[in-house]
Write a sequence for this structure.
């Protein structure tokens, strides 16, 4: 009779550990989110979240270009391979590089990214004037911590900059004219990250370092010029199933409990 009782306890033990892991997984994923475009970035609302609730995703800052028939703005519309999405544009009619600039800022819900979290976005663009830039930056409290961008006219027109690299080549995939790519950054440690950019034409990846805490994102078109429209959609933060210190503590407690059950079982 005692044997059957202990046998039932041993059968229940995996469920005890599973419950502990599940509880921590829910807690660690509390600041995950996914936003999809529904309107002009900076509109209110300009997107929906993973539960289809309306949300204000972006704060837009417009910087005027040179005086004359030059400008900048945002809209909601379609680009090849991306579909309807948030859009930022710049135009110039006096000289290349005289267009205005657009920065669309988002502060991550739930606070700064933690180890094991990934932020990703779909990104698409058209032409750029020589020397101008468009891309994505991850922000810390004082500015850009990691930037992935394209420079019009090259020579190294597909690059990243972080705490340890300036203008480093992001890989052979290169500038994708009107061909959307997904860009994802994963925090791998204290001040370290991995990045991947991919679409149907290939994949690029690299590792780097950053300073501070990653608290938000800036999608930008800096004086890109006529036809430089930048499209972006599906801003997402996810958490990998990697146990945090609190998880290990809970699992350790579960292990002690199981050890106690095993000792009682052998004594019987």
């Amino acid at each position: 009779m005692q044997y059957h009782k202990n046998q039932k306890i041993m059968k229940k033990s995996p469920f005890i550990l599973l419950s502990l892991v599940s509880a921590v997984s829910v807690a660690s994923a509390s600041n995950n989110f996914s936003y999809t475009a529904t309107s002009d970035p900076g509109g209110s609302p300009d997107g929906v979240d993973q539960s289809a609730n309306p949300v204000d995703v972006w704060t837009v800052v417009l910087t005027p270009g040179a005086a004359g028939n030059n400008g900048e703005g945002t809209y909601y519309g379609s680009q090849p391979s991306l579909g309807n999405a948030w859009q930022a544009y710049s135009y110039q009619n006096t000289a290349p590089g005289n267009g205005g600039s657009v920065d669309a800022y988002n502060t991550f819900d739930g606070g700064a990214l933690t180890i094991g979290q990934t932020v990703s976005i779909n990104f698409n663009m058209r032409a750029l004037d020589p020397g101008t830039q468009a891309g994505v930056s991850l922000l810390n409290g004082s500015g850009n911590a990691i930037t992935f961008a394209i420079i019009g006219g090259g020579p190294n027109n597909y690059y990243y900059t972080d705490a340890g690299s300036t203008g480093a080549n992001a890989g052979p995939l290169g500038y994708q004219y009107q061909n959307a790519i997904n860009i994802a950054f994963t925090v791998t440690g204290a001040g370290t990250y991995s990045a991947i950019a991919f679409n149907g034409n290939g994949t690029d990846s690299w590792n780097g370092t950053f300073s501070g805490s990653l608290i938000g994102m800036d999608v930008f078109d800096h004086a890109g010029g006529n036809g430089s429209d930048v499209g972006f959609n599906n801003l997402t933060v996810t958490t990998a199933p990697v146990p945090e210190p609190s998880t290990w503590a809970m699992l350790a407690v579960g292990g002690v409990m199981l050890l106690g059950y095993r000792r009682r079982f052998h004594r019987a």
Summary: The chain is about 20% helix and 40% strand. The two ends are 10 Å apart (CA to CA). Residues 2-28 form the longest helix (27 residues). The longest strand covers residues 230-239.
